[in-house]
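Hi all, long-time lurker, first post. I run a small reading group and we've been trying to get comfortable going from sequence to structure in the token notation. Rather than ask abstract questions, I figured I'd post a concrete chain and ask someone more experienced to write out its structure so we can walk through it together at our next meeting. Sequence below, copied exactly:
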Amino acid sequence: MGIARFACTYIYASLFTFVGQRLTCNIRHEYLRAAFSQEIGFFDQIQGSISMQATSNGKFIQAGIGEKIGMLVQAMATFIAAFVIDFISQWKLTLIIIGMFPVLLIVVGGVAGLDAQIETDILKIHAEAGSYAETILAGVRTVHAFDLRERVVSRYDSFLETSFRLGMKKNRIYGILFGGEYFIVHAAMGLAFWQGIAMVNRGQVPDLGTVFTVLFSVIIGASTVMSIAPQMVMFSRAATELFRLIDRQSAIDRFDDSGERPDSLVCDVEPHDVSFRYPTRPDVTVLDKLSLHIPAGKGTSGSGKSTVIGLLERWYDPTAGTIRLDGKDIKGLNLHWLRTNIRLVQQEPVLFNGTVFENIVDGLVGTSWETASHDEQRHRVEDAAKVSFAYDFIVCLSHGYNTRIGERGGLKYISHNQQSKKVRSGVMVAHFAFSRFTP
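-- Answer (accepted) --
Happy to help. Here is the structure in token form:
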């Protein structure tokens, strides 16, 4: 019997854990895919870190749909079997004990809901703290340069202190949960003993053994279900948080494959009667019925170039009016085609934490060399480095093109940052791109 139980438990735990990991992986994938499909305005308003949400809520989901599913099936089977046995043994006494379940469900469900809400708030605070820590670590040189360590650590501690205060509330909630649960169960046991003995004395129940059979069958069945109820509530809350973003329809969906893909591009950009307000400042009009033709290399500081760039790249859509490219409204163009035909070189481009080659080869996305062999891509990368006068600098690095750049391109000078990103495209937008070039 013991060997059979061991084998069955091992099989169900292994299979459900495997299924839970696969489902959690798929949910995280869809969550990040949904995050990348959102418009920039969504990220302007979001609080916390997307990666932290995916990690923390993913853990709760995995805990809820892993071996806990097997435990839930086992608990429900035990619960049903217990009631079948009880109704066969003594249905009157069983009906008396059942009276505790509505009260028990109200207490456990209500308190577990409060606990899940507090845990959700704690996760949000941890996400904000993680986002703040990522920002600080990305600018760690500035922190050391201005000796801001005490200040940033103090602010990070404030997040932890808020989380700690919320966590302390859970102590009282757990006290109510377990205290209420044990009170209801033991009160039901007392009522069952009292009525059971009375029924034995009246001859309605043959002996005390029947009373104990009914009583403990119900208690065991109920306790197995209640033991996993908090995990199920947390699973539900975590899934709700992730699926809120997964189900959100982006105003500008990067993965939408519809739209026109012109064969040629003249690069004539013309905002026409454009009005715009940033989502974070809906009461401030940034552009008001703007219409102009933008010659290359023109535009004084503060004239709205940054806003027009955001509209041209379709980070945002205008509140009114249109942005035309070669006379066509860019809303009617395929978004992937549009962005792969525009190269934006800013004053401080962001390089990813990876090798020099990995950062430059990203510029081949949207070109015929995107799916080329590694050797062909390497050849194109070297050509781009030579054209941008970065080749000599790169080959002098310790590992050449395989040198890891570090967070935000910490190993490279800004001029080389900019030059390495200039891959051939239909439209190049230079936003203060040459203001920090070294002569």
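A couple of things your group might point at:
The mean pLDDT is 77.
Residues 149-201 form the longest helix (53 residues).
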